[in-house]
Amino acid sequence: MAKATDGNGAPVPQRLLAAATRLFAERGYDRTSVQEIVEAAGVTKGALYHYFGSKEDLLQEVYARVLRLQQERLDAFADAEAPVERRLRDAAADVVVTTIENLDDASIFFRSMHHLSPEKNKQVRIERRRYHERFRALIEEGQQAGVFSTATPADLVVDYHFGSVHHLSTWYRPDGPLSQQEVADHLADLLLRALRP
Amino acid sequence: MAKATDGNGAPVPQRLLAAATRLFAERGYDRTSVQEIVEAAGVTKGALYHYFGSKEDLLQEVYARVLRLQQERLDAFADAEAPVERRLRDAAADVVVTTIENLDDASIFFRSMHHLSPEKNKQVRIERRRYHERFRALIEEGQQAGVFSTATPADLVVDYHFGSVHHLSTWYRPDGPLSQQEVADHLADLLLRALRP
DNA sequence: GATCACATACCGACTGGTTAGTCTGCCGAG
DNA sequence: CTCGGCAGACTAACCAGTCGGTATGTGATC
């Protein structure tokens, strides 16, 4: 018998988080009962409320994880040694790939954020804003260097691109005609083309 | 005493629809109780269930209305007498303006569609698909005429643009620095710039 | 022009079912 | 023996939809 695992190989908190992520993405936060989550994780309510303070905490944890991941990756691409147009393209394509790889998190993110209480919502917004600004700085850098058009404010360009990223969970299907990388390349390409001076 | 109006100037079904739209956008579909809707509309449950079969029917009505409106407008712009790049630009800018003008409907649309039952969801998807295809046809027309780049599949270009349109309800604020028309012009501009050969 | 039949519009108490979160207690490891 | 980790019955609240009832209007009949 394994150490702290019964119905599955992973520790209970991770199992709960994984089950919650899948169910929230599938049916939405409000339509998913705590009972369903604990059953999917192979435990009971006692276990869930032992590790998490509330159902909402579970949702916030999902956000926090995906935000940390994406911020790390963006920072890595933005700080690389390369021309700004290259760094922007890589970052723009990477966020598409990682979003597709975590489509569940993405759909939860954009559909259920308003279910968080005001304080937690604020917290998430602050993190998101940091991400947005890092991306914007990249565009502004290119604009100042003269390699990107200044016709559109950088803020709007960021929202334009992230709109399409956010939209991915609505239309992208793994069994569709385009691979993750192809979609990412096309979307990054559209961004760069729109920014040509 | 007016004819069929007591607490307000509009007929009861419209009042219910307006109240539901506002509340669904504010708190989400599941978080809005039927009781709250009828109170906001100044009637009782009896009235609501007299005019609508269910809470879900109310949500579907919201969709049907906004879909009809946007399809009509797109058709008008697409069928106009003008060069294709002009027709596309006008259509792309118009959908931004009408979306901003109906931000409540927009946020309900992309946050609550999955709350519809499978059949109703399918119905909405069919209507949406028709809209998508009309828009795509416009892009393909321009590509065949050689005025738009063929580097990106037209389907993807449509999703790129509509991603940004959906995203509007997340970030656009009427008291922000940009007017509706300015945002619309910028977003249409980004689309056209990305499509330059 | 009075009466009856029937329909439309709406009211509001009630029901059956669901849900998040609590609490008491068991159990195995150190 | 005790303490973290967890089970599962329980509670208090809530909610969509129902249903019997009332009020007002309308058209037919005599």
UniProtKB/TrEMBL annotation, chains A, B:
<feature type="domain" description="HTH tetR-type">
    <location>
        <begin position="10"/>
        <end position="70"/>
    </location>
</feature>
<dbReference type="InterPro" id="IPR009057">
    <property type="entry name" value="Homeodomain-like_sf"/>
</dbReference>
<dbReference type="InterPro" id="IPR041490">
    <property type="entry name" value="KstR2_TetR_C"/>
</dbReference>
<dbReference type="InterPro" id="IPR036271">
    <property type="entry name" value="Tet_transcr_reg_TetR-rel_C_sf"/>
</dbReference>
<keyword id="KW-0238">DNA-binding</keyword>
<dbReference type="InterPro" id="IPR050109">
    <property type="entry name" value="HTH-type_TetR-like_transc_reg"/>
</dbReference>
<keyword id="KW-0678">Repressor</keyword>
<dbReference type="GO" id="GO:0003700">
    <property type="term" value="F:DNA-binding transcription factor activity"/>
</dbReference>
<dbReference type="Pfam" id="PF17932">
    <property type="entry name" value="TetR_C_24"/>
</dbReference>
<keyword id="KW-0805">Transcription regulation</keyword>
<keyword id="KW-0804">Transcription</keyword>
<dbReference type="Pfam" id="PF00440">
    <property type="entry name" value="TetR_N"/>
</dbReference>
<dbReference type="InterPro" id="IPR001647">
    <property type="entry name" value="HTH_TetR"/>
</dbReference>
<feature type="DNA-binding region" description="H-T-H motif">
    <location>
        <begin position="33"/>
        <end position="52"/>
    </location>
</feature>
<dbReference type="InterPro" id="IPR023772">
    <property type="entry name" value="DNA-bd_HTH_TetR-type_CS"/>
</dbReference>
<protein>
    <submittedName>
        <fullName>Transcriptional regulator, TetR family</fullName>
    </submittedName>
</protein>
<dbReference type="GO" id="GO:0000976">
    <property type="term" value="F:transcription cis-regulatory region binding"/>
</dbReference>
<dbReference type="GO" id="GO:0045892">
    <property type="term" value="P:negative regulation of DNA-templated transcription"/>
</dbReference>
